[in-house]
Design brief:
The chain has 857 residues and is α+β, with helices and mostly antiparallel strands. Among the domains are: 1-192, tricorn interacting facor f3 domain (Immunoglobulin-like); 308-440, Neutral Protease, domain 2, CATH 1.10.390; 446-535, Immunoglobulin-like; 724-857, Peptidase M1, alanyl aminopeptidase, C-terminal domain (Zincin-like fold), CATH 1.25.50.10. Helix content is 41%, strand content 21%. The protein has 25 helices and 30 strands. The strands form nine sheets. A seven-stranded mixed beta sheet has the order 5-8-3-2-11-14-13, with no helix packed on it. A hairpin with a 3-residue loop joins strand 6 and strand 7. Helix 4 packs across helix 5 and helix 17 packs antiparallel against helix 18. It is globular, with a radius of gyration of 28 Å. It starts with 9 loop residues before the first strand and ends with a helix. Bound molecules: tryptophan and zinc ion (ZN). Zinc ion (ZN) is lined by residues 296, 300, 319, 322.
Length: 857
């Protein structure tokens, strides 16, 4: 048992407004690595007679002084505990007063990267969700919004905070943010930084100075981030009518960061891997991700900052909507069809996995212990899918009207999911009472579809059910939009896409006046985040893969064909010839987008095969899955060797590298072909490409192939020699070795890597590279002897002592443990219990581990 008292569970139902109004915050920060001084002046007015003033802020704050309107209160009225400072009502004057505090804090000792910390000599902050309480005593809750005036004192050359600059003198800078904001959007940066700069003129004529701040020497890798920012600003004006609202927009890249990036008002802070890119060091996937995360954080300026969340239960109000917006942006910048398929793949890999395991929770949870554990695929990605469904149900015009009303009605407020749904009801007249279950109910609905053909009419019957999730045994029916189209046997579309709305447990829809029985293309565009089950033979799947007019449904047919083969092969059966033939026909289609062909050619991963087997009631065997997938890839290569060889040659991109979607698509198809050819050419082509390619996309792909074949040693040492002092490339170097290792060697390789002096495990990127790389090696992590679990548990325990957020996040490597065989389950449970028994384990990791243990028993 631990010494620390677990924080009581927080409940949505317990929400109460704060009994004070905070009308201004003034901060004066004197920076020093070990003793930073923060003077804070809060202008407060009590709203409720007799209310004590309770501020967040724990033992890490050294309180130097505290006054109310310049007077020291009687010490008997000032009470501190581990997490709070309380000034009793008796010590508070009536009306408005100024509370002034001065605290000392120690950024150099902050290894949790929450609050004010040092990253490579750069002072920076991370305040979402509850980091501001580590900087000063404050009402650290998102519904308390006010303007900030900030003075920074430091000898460092660049001093930044939110809002507009007021004055910049040697050793001191003043900033003022005129837009009321909650403290989780506060930011401060100080360091020896240089900027890549540009300008943007908003459509109403405001001239905005743009800067991407990096360490000296990194400027030549920041240009793509700047271009992405400019595109995002333009897009939000064009599509949502949203303009930027300050004179400057700053982005800073730091090496130590717990997540991807943070939308602090006017001063976004980014993990450097989501800013810095050059052809030699970043892959096409990195470029695409940089563009989308820059957009995501920029879009938060309206969806998150101007309109924020009333409380943290409403997190998906800003995150689901902002993910939805960044997905729309990427579809507009690149290929909409390809983006949709990529998003669905990611949703299934991360969110379906979460929804089907012990950590399942609704997009809007109604209780939590540690809010940082709820920055999940369910809140973000499922939150975005729910908005996509809303848009499908009310139509594009309805969606646009509702969003205009949302910005109009709630600008400057801290809103709720109820507010959000109400604007849709008011703008479109639609009743969303049943729809709101998507926000409150966890779990992925399973919809079974049956077809009945009689005298020229086709009846589709649907039955929906949602399996129980922790704390939610029974799930009422939801509104589920299912987009359906019909194809004639010659492949023509006989009925264009129509959205059927399920609202009951069981429901039928009839299509009349058909001359021949059509083939049904269902769940087009992935119109709802559900599992659709239907009886379909491989010939029909191959037909849809060849003919479906909807790109998602087309890809999905190929996916189903592959999964049907792979699940059969993994359980000892014979299968795959239909798939091998169909995929050959598809990739030979020269008129089809190479990116689409690449997505279709990549086999489902081992984790996805395991998930499918589990949902069919099998116990997945990671070694058998690995063998089945290897075998099918080899058969594809043998059957289509000349075609794959031709694609590999023809898809080579000549001329200087460009990260645009068309060039990336060609590389993606080329690499997909190379991966299959590697199954039969012994890796010879990959070895040549690794040495010859001038871009990281092809080099990393080649390296992965060589490592899988156990012949990567030379390439690994070459890459190390070339990039030993580039942290981002070295992160890839660690990660790919664990991820692509032959499963039986994976744990030993990870262990060796973890003993290296350059395994700087306190850096979140480096830690995630190695531990996340191993977790992504399905058969390696799930080694039958439990060595993958034991190794991971050791590192989680070590990390938890210095950075609880990172440990808790990485613990999700275990979230699928209940589905494996008894031997693996025993090992996994033992590892989880060992973590749970650690003295002083953080609230973050304790909550995760106990939910995983409870949900698997
Ligand atoms: N709001 C950030 C985003 O979605 C997420 C984030 C960044 C975050 N850093 C964090 C959340 C630290 C929790 C803790 O872009
Ligand atoms: Zn976000």
């Amino acid at each position: 048992m631990s010494q620390t008292d677990p924080q009581p569970v927080q409940y949505l139902a317990d929400y109460r407004p704060w009994p004070f109004v905070l009308s201004e915050t003034r901060l004066d920060v004197t920076l020093a690595p070990r003793d930073t001084r923060v003077r804070a002046e809060l202008r407060l007015t009590s709203q409720k007679a007799g209310a004590d003033l309770v501020l967040n802020g724990g033992k890490g704050l050294r309180l130097m002084s505290l006054t109310i309107d310049g007077q020291q209160p009687d010490p008997a009225h000032v009470i501190r505990d581990d997490e709070r400072l309380t000034i009793t009502a008796a010590a508070l004057p009536p009306g408005t007063f100024i509370l002034a505090t001065e605290v000392g804090i120690d950024p150099a000792d902050n290894t949790a990267f929450e609050g004010l910390y040092l990253s490579n000599g750069i002072f920076c902050t991370q305040c979402e969700a509850e980091g501001f309480r580590h900087i000063t005593f404050y009402p650290d809750r998102p519904d308390v919004m006010t303007t900030f005036a900030v003075t920074i004192r430091s000898g460092l050359p660049v001093l930044l905070s939110n809002g507009n600059p007021v004055s910049q003198g040697p050793g001191v800078a003043e900033w003022h943010d005129p837009w009321p904001k909650p403290c989780y959007l506060f930011a401060l940066v100080a360091g020896d930084l240089v900027a890549v700069s540009d300008r943007f003129t908003t459509r109403s004529g405001r001239d905005v100075a743009l800067n991407v701040w990096v360490r000296p020497g990194d400027q030549d890798r920041a240009g793509f981030a700047m271009q992405s920012l400019i595109k995002s600003m333009k897009w939000d004006e064009d599509v949502y009518g949203r303009e930027y609202d300050l004179d400057v927009f700053n982005i800073v890249a730091v090496d130590d960061f717990n997540m991807g990036a943070m939308e602090n008002k006017g001063l976004n802070i980014f993990n450097s891997k989501l800013v810095l890119a050059s052809p030699e060091t970043a892959t096409d996937a990195d470029y695409e991700r940089i563009e989308s995360v820059i957009a995501h954080e920029y879009f938060h300026n309206w969806t998150g900052n101007r309109i924020t969340c009333r409380d943290w239960f409403q997190l998906c109000l800003k995150e689901g909507l902002t993910v939805f917006r960044d997905q729309q942006f990427t579809s507009d910048m690149r290929s909409a069809a390809v983006k949709r398929i990529e998003d669905v793949q990611a949703l299934r890999a991360r969110q379906f996995r979460e929804d089907q395991g012990p950590l399942a929770h609704p997009p809007r949870p109604d209780h939590y212990e540690e809010i940082n554990n709820f920055y999940t695929a369910t809140v973000y990605e499922k939150g975005a899918e729910v908005i996509g469904m809303l848009q499908r149900l009310v139509g594009g015009d309805g969606y646009a009207k509702a969003l205009d009303l949302y910005f109009d009605r709630h600008d400057g407020e801290a809103a709720t999911i109820e507010d959000w749904l109400k604007v849709f009801e008011d703008a479109t007249g639609r009743d969303l009472a049943q729809f709101s279950r998507w926000y409150t109910d966890a779990g992925t609905p399973i919809v079974e579809m049956d077809e009945d053909w009689q005298d020229g009419s086709l009846t589709l019957t649907f039955r929906q059910s949602t399996p129980p999730t922790p704390g939610q045994p029974v799930k009422p029916a939801r509104v589920i939009p299912i987009a359906v189209g019909l194809l004639s046997p010659n492949g023509d579309e006989v009925a264009k896409t129509r959205v059927l709305e399920l609202t009951e447990d069981g429901q039928s829809f009839t299509f009349d006046g058909l001359s021949v029985r059509p083939v049904v293309s269902a769940l087009r565009g992935f119109s709802a985040p559900i599992i659709l089950r239907r009886n379909m033979d491989d010939a029909t799947r191959a037909f849809l893969l060849a003919h479906d007019a909807d790109p998602f449904a087309r890809w999905e047919a190929g996916r189903e064909l592959a999964l049907s083969a792979l699940t059969t092969l993994s359980t000892g059966g014979e299968a795959g010839s239909d798939y091998v033939a169909a995929i050959g026909a598809l990739i030979a289609e020269e008129g089809t987008d190479p990116a689409f062909r690449a997505l279709s050619l990549n086999l489902p991963g081992e984790e996805e095969i395991a998930t499918r087997l589990a949902s069919l009631g099998h116990t997945p065997d990671p070694d058998a899955i690995h063998a089945a997938r290897t075998d099918l890839a080899r058969r594809i290569a043998l059957a289509h060797e000349p075609l794959l060889g031709r694609i590999y040659d023809e898809m080579a991109v000549t001329g200087p590298y460009s990260p645009d979607a068309a060039s990336a698509a060609r590389r993606a198809l080329r690499i997909a072909a190379l991966g299959l050819l590697g199954r039969i050419d012994g890796g010879d082509r990959a070895a040549v490409l690794f040495g010859a390619a001038g871009n990281m996309t092809e080099r990393m792909a080649a390296l992965g192939i060589l490592l899988r074949l156990g012949r990567g040693a030379e390439a690994i040492s070459a890459l190390h020699d070339e990039f030993a002092d580039n942290r981002l490339v070295m992160d890839k170097w660690f990660s790919i070795q664990a991820m692509a290792a032959p499963p039986q060697d994976a744990v030993a390789i990870a262990r060796e890597l973890s003993a290296r002096p350059d395994f700087d495990w306190k850096n979140p990127n480096r830690f995630r590279s190695l531990l996340g790389g191993l977790a992504a090696n399905h058969a390696g992590f799930h080694a039958a002897d439990g060595s993958g679990y034991g190794f991971t548990a050791d590192w989680l325990i070590r990390m938890d002592a210095i950075n609880p957020q990172i440990a808790a996040r990485m613990s999700t490597a275990f979230e699928t443990w209940p589905r494996y065989d008894a031997q693996r389950r025993d090992h996994a449970l033992a590892a989880l219990e060992r973590i749970a028994s650690v003295e002083g384990l953080s609230r973050n990791t304790r909550e995760m581990v106990s939910r995983m243990i409870a949900g698997g028993r």
